[in-house]
Structure formats: structure tokens, C-alpha cells
């Protein structure tokens, strides 16, 4: 059962190794202790997703099956208004390929966008753009091991546009055109995509997948394919795969959007009803199951192990307990079992996190259950050692797990996790009116892939509430033990040094006896906000007045704290909160730059008053509270996404951090260790070097924007951290921005008790930052990476400007940037296949007088670097000399218009645009022209901006090339 909320995702915390999603892992399910047998028999066309399930049908969805076997699910949804989200799911991914067809499922996805019945070669992307859909975000497709999903989010839909959408989409899915020219053009693009995604991380993921799923197709079936099979592809061989799997009885169309269900069904019937199925539907491939090695010791479940040596990656130890995957009936009882599974894992993860915060041998560790690509039911354990001694780290994590397998949890521990689950399930109930149609459509696609159902948030919460009597220590204990049993256990050590261990060492680490770490259990004592001292004497409201836009109110408290309040019902149950204070990067002394990044990692974990991070966690149990922290050019920012019931306490947390800071040492030491472990990985590929260094180099080498290296990190001390951050927390004005579903009088009262109770603060010093990009260079600045020798990256940047006075020009520059992007995409990807996804972006800092730039970046082969620099110079010169075409203008203005229109239906859009508006009221004037600025321009205006900014002798060039071996 997948919730239509997106918030109760079975409490998944992906293992660190798998975060890159290259394993294409679906949402987890479980098959314990004894899965119900999958239903058989005749399918009800109006209820096909729920066959064999007693989970209440989400009545908002209308299901059906066309005579040709095509299934559909449609739903009316007005978030955002006017948009219709279409998902076409073909039940075929990389594990449906033969050895000779590896990569075909993904290649077909590419070719489908290239040439089809109603969209000839090169027309698809421009056509969707002119319909208002942005390529890559609104128009996209994904291929996994088990399915291919085509995604379209079409804005401002009327009857004609809806008909055109389904017409074009039907041609793409049912009648793509595979030509020698198309294949010859698209294969190099896929190979470029393969190059750009290849590196140490991808090798580790491929190696781990190959180990964990030994003997199963998933072990070798990466969706990207292989160089040999892709180069051998022909229109005929590709068509054979398409004809076999692209058939109506193997396809599902999902539509959620601002249209009547009957209208959507009529479009599906009209454009897909004539799609004929040829022959008998082929059987599903056999995905195999995990098995013990031949001749293995029956008493020892540990099977194959592996050591993967990657000099640029930190140590990581992963092991998986694997069981055969079994399709089940997605019943209420089955989901109640899943909830108990999650409780058991949540208890272990909390214990591991608490231990890691102290003086543990591991920096981080987690356990998670996942059903992977319908191939195995797995329990995954990930360990990040704190130093070189990975064996102690694995031992200590296994000891925590051993304790969970030896003794049932206490009722108090369970109650704490149940409270966390309660809020995770309840928030979606409170905010379900804000669910976007695109998210709802994705939920159905995911449920189909993992062979489950969907349920609305009320149903999920109701099942959870009725399940609480089942959450006993005995049940949680039994489920936990089942989660750590399986057919085979496989483990892998990722290490920078081959001398760190052997496969035998990995096996020994998994089989060595461990004593249960009984001391890992967390105290179950509760802590309430009512137990905490007041921030100070509550303040009063000095002034309150309308801001003159949308009912937003500007308030000043007696101590000088300013606030923007906008109470509205646009997103029921949700409040967005931002607290801006101090001076940001501008206030940090460059010689203390390393403490800036440490602050982002550790400042909030260091607690406040008498509360450390563990106490804060207990305080937040069952609440929607957070302590997010970021640094902007001229502000420090605390942010949270909360709900009406928790607003006052969320404000207390933020005000407490400023008024009663605490300086625990462990969070700083842990952040330092994490930063050191992660730094070397930044050398592993050209894109990681570019991501690490481009930002601060584009600010003329300002160290405050740099990622600190290990030598700088070695200088970090808890005492130094406090020396830097204690005055930073105390200086500069405070602005509190609160947008969403709250009671105005209650919110003001909470502000008075929290931020109004802080001492009056002095004004911040005027920002001294005035960044500029480096001077023009004929020869590119060259950096090196340690990754594959056939990969490189490059950038060309041109200086623009900064400051609020040029905000309208900055928006026009964004349109120019997108035109540049279209041309660079065509030149580097479509014409020569040198790069998969070249990007051009514009940066204009409104709070600084300078520092803006336009930057074109690309990943490619080293031999293609001259072609990129030549193309960038050529495009810049042509845009300066000649106005762009009307077609190019339409391709960028219509998507931007639709993007702004859709975004402006949510509070987050206004929060972002008006941030700082209590201190700088002019921002309210800036927002009034945003739609016209982003969606209206002329060829002459674009040419004038290009002539002003895209000047060759002001450009700066950077390249990242392989380090010589």
C-alpha cells in the first residue's frame, strides 16, 4: 500500500551507498512473516489495482481497462490549477532485455522523443516547450530495471491542448519511428550519458549490485546498457524489442489533473483504443532469487563477499540479508505487518544514531528493509567507519543489532516511535489538499511497479490507528528477528586502500561473534516544551501594517525584530517558516572561512540551553519540527516546514538557538570527521571537481565559499567554533517570515513570547562583499580529477551584475540564458553527441552589488573540449550579432510563463521572492512585474543583453581534465 501523501514512505532511509539511485530501487515492501498468496482469477476492470486487496479503494481514482487490454487510472486534481500530469508506464525495463539487447529499454526511451508518428525528427522537445512544458522537468522519461515511465506535466490545459497532448503522446508510444539516422544520432548521446554517470560511485554501486544479486539478472542489468550492445543496435533490433513489450496489455496510462475524469478517459480511449496487440502477451521474465553458494556451510548464512578499492572514496561497509521476493496480496494485515517491521528498524536506527553522536567507532550507520526490483526482499545495513578501523565499526554496529535480536524493546521505546509514526501519517491527512497531480500520478506508477495498491491519507492513518494494539514488545521483537534472517548474507567493503582487507576479512567481520550492546538502548524519558524556561520577558507589537500585497502583514516587535505574516488557506495544514538574521558570508572573517561550512553542518546539532541533540530529539517526538540552517550572502537562515499545532514550539526552538546557544563539542568533531571523509570523493570525477571549485573560483577565490580541504579541517576545534559563531549568532537584525495556515493572533502571541523576548540586537555592519569573476583568460584554468581518463568537464562564464536595482534585467537574462542553453544543447548533444546534458545558468545576487554571471557548463571527453569552447564562443557571438528567432523566444517564454503561473499558487514561491522583505520593503515592488519580466521579451532585447554581457574578452574559461597517471 503506497500512501497518496508522499510523507509516509514506510520511513525509508536509503543506505548511504544507494542514495545515488543507480540501483533504481522502488519503494520498499516486505514479505514477512508469511506473505499471503497473490490473487488469481478474473480482474475487475473498474478496480484492477485492488485485486486481492481489502485496502479501501481510493474513490478519487477512476480505473478501467480498454478492450485491447490497456489499463488506465484517472483522477481530477487542481494542484496546480490548469495542469494535467500524464504517466505512461510500460512494464518493461532493463531486466526484460536479452544479453544482446542490453540498454535497449533505455535507448527506446530516447528514440521515442526523437521521431514518431506525429512528431518528426527534432520536433518533440520544441513542440512540448511551446505547449508550456519544460524539457527535463515537465517532459521526461525514466527507465529502471522493471519499467519505463514517460512523464508529461502539461500546464494551462484546455480541451484542444488536452487532445493535442494525447495525440502526440499516442504517436510516441504506439508508433515511434526507428531510422538508421535516428539510431546513429541517439546512441552517441546515450554513450555520453554513460560517460557522465561513470565514476567511482557508479563503479561501487555496480559492484555492490553485482555482488548482492549474484546469479540474478539484476546483477548485470544496469538500464544504461553496454558500449558494445548500444553500438550494435539497429532499427530492426530495436523495433523487435519495442514490438515485444510495447503493447496495450503491457501498458498503463495514469492521468491526474485539472480536467474531468470522463474527459480524460475519452482521450485515452480515442488515441489509444485503436492500438492493436499482436500475438499472445509474452510471459514476465524470471528475475531469479537469492541462493546460497553451492557447497556452502548450512550453519553459516554468509555467502559471497567483495572488496572494492576506490582511492577517492571514503571507507564504507555494506551488507545485505537477502530473501526471495514474493508477490503478495496488498491487504490491511500485510500492511500492519509492514508497520511493525518499520517500528523494529526505527528502534535500531535511533540507537545507532545516538551511539554515533557520542564517541563511536562509526560516523553513521543504518538498517533498512527494501524489496529491490522484484528480485529480492532485503535487509540492508550500511556502516561508515569514523577512521581506518572499519572492523571495529562493523563489530560495534553488529553489537547494536545483536541487542535488538536478543531482548524485546520496552513499551516506552515503542511508544516513542509510534508517536513519530503518528505525526508522519497525520501530516498528510492535514495537508492532502495540497497534493500535486504529478505526485499522485507518480504514486500510482510506483504502486503498479511494486505490485501494490494506493490509499488516501485518511485510510492510511485509520489503518495505523487501528493497528496500535498490535505494536507490542513481543510483536516488534519477532518481526525484528525475522528481518535479520534470510537465504544468504553478502557483504562488501569499499576502501581507498587495497591493504585494508580481503574478502576473507569481510566474511570474518560478518561471522565474528558479538556481544549484545545493551548500553545502546535509549532512555525513554519524555521531555515537554512546558518543562523549558521562557526565552525572556515577552515583547510587544510596536507596529503592524499591511504590506500592500496579497494580505501580507508587516510587523515590528518592541525589540526591533521584524516579521512578515501571511495567513492563508492555500495549503491547508502547512506553514513555511524562515528566520533570517545576522550577516551571512559577508560577516564571516575570511581567515575563519572553514567555520562557515562547519556551521552549516554542526550549529543546530550543538543544541541550546540545557538541551543537546538527543534531548531535542525527545522534545520533537511526535511533532513536525526541524532545525534547518543555511548561509546566504548577507544572511543566516533557519527554516522549517511545520503545521499549526507545532508553530509556537517551532518558534521557541529557533529563538532558543539565538538566545541560549549551547556549544557541545561532539557535533563539531563529528562534522569535521564527515567533511574530511567526503573531501577526497570530490576528486573522483570532473563533475565533482567542478561542483567543488567553480562556485568559489567564480567569486574570485573567496575562501568563504570554498569547500575546506583536510588540512584546513584539521585546524577546526570546538573552541574555535564557539569563538566564531557565538558573536555571529548575536549580531544583526532578525526577520521572521511566516506564510501558511495559522491563526494570526495566536502566531503574533507566539512571536512575542519567543523572538519578542530576545534582547535588542545591534544593526549588522554593511556587507563588504563585492565578488567578481576572474579576469578574462585565453587559456582555460586547468584543474584535474582522479577519475576515468575519457571524462572531462568545462565552463565558460561571463560577468553580469548584482543588486536589487537590476532585478528586472536579471529576469530577462534568464530568458537569454535559456536560449543559449537550447543552442548549446543542439550543438553539443544533438549534432556531435559530445555531451548528454550541457547546462547554461544565470546568477544575479540581489543582496550584493556585483558577482553575477552567466555560465555554460558541460561534461564531455577531453578531446571534445576545444569543440565546447568554440561552440560557446560561437553562440555568444551570434547572439550578440543577431537577434534570436521568434521560435526560440516562444520555446523559452511559454514554459517560463507556465512555471511562474504554477509556482505562484503556493506559499513557497512568495516566501522565496519576498525573503528579507520586512527589512527591505522594496522587494514587494520587485515581485509585481515578475510574470511579465520572465515571460515577455523581444528578439531585440535579447540581442542587446547578449551584446552587453556575452563579450568574448570578458569571458573566463575553466576545464577539468584527467590527472596524468
TrEMBL record:
InterPro entries: Metalloenz_LuxS/M16 (IPR011249), Pept_M16_N (IPR011765), Peptidase_M16 (IPR050626), Peptidase_M16_C (IPR007863). The keyword Chaperone does not apply. Belongs to the peptidase M16 family. This is Insulinase family protein. Residues 233-418, 739-892 form the Peptidase M16 C-terminal domain. Pfam families: Peptidase_M16 (PF00675), Peptidase_M16_C (PF05193). GO terms for biological process: proteolysis. Residues 83-196 form the Peptidase M16 N-terminal domain. Gene3D superfamilies: Metalloenzyme, LuxS/M16 peptidase-like. Residues 1-30 form the signal peptide. Keywords: Hydrolase, Metalloprotease, Protease, Signal, Zinc. One of its GO terms (molecular function) is metallopeptidase activity. The keyword Transmembrane helix does not apply. PANTHER family: NARDILYSIN, PROTEIN YHJJ.
